[in-house]
Amino acid sequence: MDLTSAFQTIVADKRFSTYEEFEAALTDFKKQTGVEFARGRVTYHPEGTIKRANLLIANAEYVCRCKRSTECEAAFKLGSRRLFLHVIKFYMLHNHGVSRAAPEDEEQKGGGEHSSPAYEVLEDLTPQFMRFFPSDRMDTYEAFHERMREFQQATGSVYVLGRSNKWSQKEQAAAASSRLTYKNVTLQCVHFGSGSSRRSSVEGSTRLK
C-alpha cells in the first residue's frame, strides 16, 4: 500500500509553526488513510526557549504502528528549522493494508453512548506532560501533587501511586524541613499493565525523585 501521495499532501509538503499544528495534520492523515504512526527517538528543544514553547521537538522519528506485527518499514523523520517543524524525509510504502478503520470512523453496533470501544485506543500525552512539567525539579511534593492534579484534569488521565520509598530515619529531619514526602515514587496510569488504554488515559508511568 503506497501512501506517498497522501502523506505528501497532508503532512510532508507543509510547515508547522506549532507542535499542535503538526499533530492535527498527522491526525488528519490517520483519519483519511486508517494508518497510524508511533513516535520513536526524540530530541526536545532546550527549556525556556521559544522553540520549546511552540515547537517542543527538535527532531523525532516516527514508525508505522504495524512495524512489529508485519515488519513494515514505513517511517518518517520530523525536524525543526528556524521557527517551523517539517518532515525531513519519509518512506510511505506499507507492506500491509488497512487493518481497521480509524477510530473516528469506527461505528459501534448495538451499543449505547457508554459502550466500550471494540478497538484499543492509544494516546501519546508527552507534549501535554512536557508543558505541565517543563522542569524535572520541583521544590516540594505538594507542588508536584498540585501540578499532577492539573495535568490529570486537563487530559482526563488518572494516575495512582505505585512503588514508593520514604526517607531513612537519618534523612527524615532534612526531608521534613524541605517538605519532601518521598525519596522516590512511581505514579502509574490506572490502565498500566492491563493491556487496555482508552482515549482518556496514557499507558506508562512517571517517576518523581
Description:
With 209 residues, the chain is of the alpha+beta class. The chain has 2 domains: 3-91, no CATH class; 125-189, no CATH class. It is built from 7 helices and 7 strands. It has helices at 4-12, 19-33, 50-54, 67-70, 126-132, 141-155, 169-177; strands spanning 37-44, 57-64, 75-81, 84-91, 159-165, 184-189, 205-208. The strands form 2 sheets. Strands 1-2-3-4 form a 4-stranded antiparallel sheet. It has a 3-stranded antiparallel sheet with strand order 5-6-7, with no helix packed on it. A hairpin with a 2-residue loop joins strand 3 and strand 4. Helix 1 runs antiparallel to helix 2. The longest helix has 15 residues, at 19-33. The relative contact order is 0.12.
Keywords, please?
7 helices, 2 domains, alpha+beta, 209 residues, three-stranded antiparallel β-sheet, four-stranded antiparallel β-sheet, single chain, elongated
Q: In terms of topology, how is this protein built?
A:
Layout: H1 4-12, H2 19-33, E1 37-44, H3 50-54, E2 57-64, H4 67-70, E3 75-81, E4 84-91, H5 126-132, H6 141-155, E5 159-165, H7 169-177, E6 184-189, E7 205-208
Antiparallel strand pairs: 1-2, 2-3, 3-4, 5-6, 6-7
Helix pairs in contact: 1-2
Count of individual helical segments: 7
How would you sum up the major sheet?
4 strands, antiparallel
Low-confidence stretches: 100-121, 194-209
User: What is the helix/strand order?
Assistant: HHEHEHEEHHEHEE
- The percent range for helix content is 25-40%
Strand order of the largest sheet: 1-2-3-4
